[in-house]
Amino acid sequence: MSEANASRSAMGSLRPSMRCAVVRQVIVGLAFLACFIAFRPSPSFGQQSQGTQNSPGSQSANADLEEGKRQFEQNCSTCHGVDAGGEVGPDLHGVAAKLGDAAVHDIIRRGIPGTAMPGSSTMSDRQVADVVAYLESLDTMASPATIAGDPTKGQALYQSSACPTCHMIDGRGGDIGPELTRIGAMRGAPGLKARLLDPGAELPKVGEGVFGGRWTQYLVFRAVEKDGHVIEGMRVGEDSFSIVLKDSSGRFHGLWKPDLRSLEKEPGKSFMPSLRDTLSEAQLEDLVAYLMTLKGTQ
Ligand code: HEC
Ligand code: HEC
Description:
The longest helix has 38 residues, at 2-39. By secondary structure, this protein is α+β, with helices and mostly antiparallel strands. The chain has helices at 2-39, 65-75, 77-80, 95-99, 101-110, 125-138, 151-160, 163-166, 183-186, 189-197, 281-292, and strands spanning 168-169, 172-173, 220-225, 230-238, 242-246, 252-256, 260-266. Among the domains are: 59-138, Cytochrome c-like domain (Cytochrome Bc1 Complex, Chain D, domain 2, Orthogonal Bundle), CATH 1.10.760.10; 151-199 and 273-292, Cytochrome Bc1 Complex, Chain D, domain 2; 215-266, SH3 type barrels. The protein has eleven helices and seven strands. Helix 2 crosses helix 6 (125-138), helix 5 packs across helix 6 (125-138) and helix 7 (151-160) packs across helix 11 (281-292).
């Protein structure tokens, strides 16, 4: 009791001086930042100068393109493709010109919140600047992922191939699979094509970690009831004694675990049918061309 009072009064007497120290630090910090912004050598935030040439406004002048390429291959190519033509992430040809170097620098550092684009805290500012310069150097090159298909034919195929029963675009369609409203901004053409041929490729597989947590929601569970009746569905809810599965037609099944003979995950299995045998190569290109036009509202 008295101890508590003592410590409370000690805190009370400490607090103003602590506050003072904090205020002082904030002021010093702000002054520091102001100097930094006023005198930073180039538009690439925090870039270390190398040697003496630091022509303002041209970060590529002293950036190391080879190092940028190496860093890109190490940190970005798994998602954006070795040639930056897009896979799980979008094509990055022309992105530096479109967004500006500073914005790209910022995206690499902080990622894009709410999307699968992660930020990098392990690369140095120098390395990030080199990657930006490398991306800038790709602006002048044609993208390797040029899309040959006809998006109008692709849209007709989309409507006639049962896609809308499972996918939503601009609020219309089903919700068995992921929404496709922004799919053309989220993914590269090569990645989309691969996904149409091999659905489930991005779903968690046996012995693998979870892919960004995102795809676990499409993981298929297989429940066998005591009478041998099989129910397959994506898990929408679970506790110790029950599980709710949503089947491929969108129907919900509430299951009581003690009543089941078995309950297993089916890693790598997807409700999405492969288009490998149903569409020709040309039709597939048309469909991808259509999906790539879906960029959401900008
Ligand atoms: C885990 C996969 C992944 C990694 C690793 C990754 N990205 Fe991305 N990136 C994405 C995805 C997905 C998007 C699209 C996000 C969205 O808009 O939904 C994206 C978007 C971007 C964009 C914005 C594109 C635009 O047109 O607006 C840039 C720039 C970018 N990434 C650069 C990089 C760079 C450079 C690296 C390496 C340092 C990197 N990314 C690493 C997945 C990744
Ligand atoms: C029976 C439901 C169903 C049908 C029909 C279906 N899909 Fe899917 N689709 C899914 C599911 C579930 C996923 C997520 C798991 C996966 O990737 O396999 C998915 C994933 C996708 C993806 C990847 C999305 C991403 O974020 O990368 C694309 C693209 C796609 N579908 C397009 C199509 C197109 C085009 C059609 C029509 C030809 C179609 N789907 C038909 C259920 C379906």
